[in-house]
Amino acid sequence: MGEAGRGGWCPPMDLFRSEPMQLLQLIIPVESAHLTVSYLAELCLLQFKDLNAEKSPFQRTYATQIKRCGEMARKLRFLKEQMLKNGVSPTGSTTQPDVNIDDLEVKLTELESELTEINANSEKLQRSYNELVEYKLVLQKAGEFFHSAQSGAIEHQREYESQHQIGESIETPLLDDQELSTDSSKQVRLGFLAGLVPREKSMAFERILFRATRGNVFFRQAIVEDPVTDPVSGEQVEKNVFVIFYAGEKAKSKILKICEAFGANRYPFTGELGKQAEMISEVSGRLLELKTTIDTGLLHRCNLLQTIGVQFEQWNLLVRKEKAIYHTLNMLSLDVTKKCLVAEGWSPVFATKMIQDALQRAALDSNSQVSSIFQVLQTREIPPTYFCTNKFTSPFQEIIDSYGVAKYREANPTVYTIITFPFLFAVMFGDWGHGICLLLGALFFIIREKKLSGQLDKLGDITEMTFGGRYVIMLMAIFSIYTGLIYNEFFSVPFELFGPSAYACRDLSCRDATTVGLIKVRRTYPFGVDPVWHGTRSELPFLNSLKMKMSILLGVAQMNLGIIMSYCNAKFFGSSVNIWFQFIPQMIFLNSLFGYLSALIIVKWCTGSQADLYHILIYMFLSPTDDLGENQLFAGQKILQQVFLLLAVVSVPWMLIPKPFILKKQHEDVCFRLNFTQALFVPSEIIYLRSDSDSLLPQRQRGESYAPLQITEESVQIESNHDSNGHEEFEFSEVFVHQLIHTIEFVLGAVSNTASYLRLWALSLAHSELSSVFYEKVLILAWGYNNVIILIVGFIVFAFATVGVLLVMETLSAFLHALRLHWVEFQNKFYEGDGYKFYPLSFSLLDGEDDML
């Protein structure tokens, strides 16, 4: 959302509240409208409103130009497909091309026609070449059939003649040649067909031929060793050469139909061996000529596509810019005189001077005799939300926007989320060994961010998402190292980094004993958990108690921060009702119960008391008058608890009852003032209030009589209940029910949200125990075998388990839980998130788009 420097203009960042916005009206001469929109798009600071929402796309002024740009985009897609098909990638930059849009349209038409003609000729030549290749195979394979048949016949004739010379024998035929010969008119003359059939269909082909002719054919086939390019489909297909001998025209017609049905390609063939050799020689010569012609055509097409590739990105960007400009111009309303275009849009207040300069520059560059008119409109319409972010703060802002876009000028949780989100993640992920691994991964993306930024389309979805959150991961890793040092865990192994342990054994028999068997011999371990706790039987109870209490303290602190943020919103919007009847009772209720519990935790830590805090909190409600006994931590605790309980009970009706009645009274006062104003002032003195429906009014009725308005949250809430005809509507029952739901939600949420923060303790414990299991049951177990192979296998298993489970699955789990704590437990105290983003017209966004308009 509005990265700093995206358009080259951004004020000093203030993430706490969105940028002040203003509604502008621009009256632009038609002759300078195109250049004006182009210059404003380069600024990236103006979001145009659609003033022609009631018109269909085909009824708008510039529908023809958009259709023209769409046609050019189609031609560019065709050129890109041709380049990708031939392995040519665009190499040019996305700088502004020298060619204008009219010349580009002519050039694209010529290139498309030329490429279409080249492709058509190439396809014809390639098909002819493939047919000749098949024809040559048929001549070779079928020629082998005839050659082998002729050789067999000659051998049989020689054998027959030798038998006649020896004399008649028992094997001599009873009828000699003269007796066998009959009338030549009664002899059957056989015809034959030759061609190729796909190998997978050859068996079925032969079977159908046999059945169709009732066995009156002679079928021979030979396998072609290498796949053949089919002339029709252009695909590589394994085929067999066949020769079919038949008798009669009726059989021939059946065979032709079967060949057509099976996709068998037939080729002319002669039975004379001499002519076969001539035909093979002729076909080989034609193949050589076609090969030379095809290679020349391919070279010409490759050179043409490389020439296109040099300027393709520039042409593509120009077409997308033109289409974006005309889309924007279609959102502008045409003046009655049809000489001016009227535009309305939102822009940050700091951009006023830059927009005015752009308007003047466009008027000069377009040689317009009239400059554009710039004026600011006063309106009660809620402006869009715009935060000026950079590559570091942008991913944190996206985390918040995924929940809901901040309402205009609402306090932005991102300011605190930058620190609290990675910190709460680290509380659940605390291990400085794992944190170093995460840090190395984040630094890899950060160091190579310039290279990877230009290859986002080549990255996978997960890699691209990880790259976008590289700075979030870096802070998560840094805080994980910090909390890992506090927990004193390096892949679950403790180290004495900050000095020796404060405890020592009384004797050698206490090695596996609890802390009762240890005595304090040195000063307290200076930072984090004393390493002596790890591996003892009391490790789990000690760390459970520590992390559970720490989770409550962190949760109560963050929830208090959320309630304080609600005060900041109420103070900024001038809503005293929300301060007195929302902020104050909520602070009292939360801190009377869980703030008091947090104070007891700190007191117990400081005094070393053995008091049961569960017992204290439960009986604070059940028996507030009973003595505390051994659970008393300080003098006057019983009276203080009764006061806190009373305050908590009083704060509930304090939140529930007064606010609806006060809103009703304020609504009645506003209605009285409006009626009084309408009765006293003449229409020419009435202040015009602009609403969404004003955009349908004629231009001369709007834009010149606007007056500044003081907007408060209460007035907006009250006046939103007015309908378009000015009739007053205030549903008190609806407001009261809404306040009742809000009160119940906060009271119950104070308990459930505090309990929800215990996930910090649970996830931290699970991460620590998983890490310990992998270390002890895999790595240490493999080390104990004193075998190099087992040790290597164990280390590989340990590495994969650590990366797959702890660095991937546990990272994702802790990330989602931290996300939940911010979205639900923190932001529901103050964040409405019902705004909408500021989307300015921008050419810089087109540079990163992969898909063309």
UniProtKB/TrEMBL annotation:
Q: Can you tell which superkingdom this protein's organism belongs to?
A: Eukaryota
Membrane protein topology class: Multi-pass membrane protein
Q: Which GO terms describe its cellular component?
A: vacuolar proton-transporting V-type ATPase, V0 domain
Please provide, alphabetically and separated by semicolons, the GO molecular function terms listed in this UniProt record: ATPase binding; proton-transporting ATPase activity, rotational mechanism
Keyword field contains Nucleus: no
Q: Name one GO biological process term.
A: vacuolar acidification
Chain ranges passing through the membrane = 423-447, 468-487, 550-568, 580-603, 639-657, 788-809
User: Where is this protein localized, as stated in its record?
Assistant: Membrane
Q: Which family does it belong to?
A: Belongs to the V-ATPase 116 kDa subunit family.
Q: Which PANTHER family match?
A: V-TYPE PROTON ATPASE SUBUNIT A3, VACUOLAR PROTON ATPASES
Q: What is this protein called?
A: V-type proton ATPase subunit a
Q: What organism is this sequence from? A: Sphenostylis stenocarpa
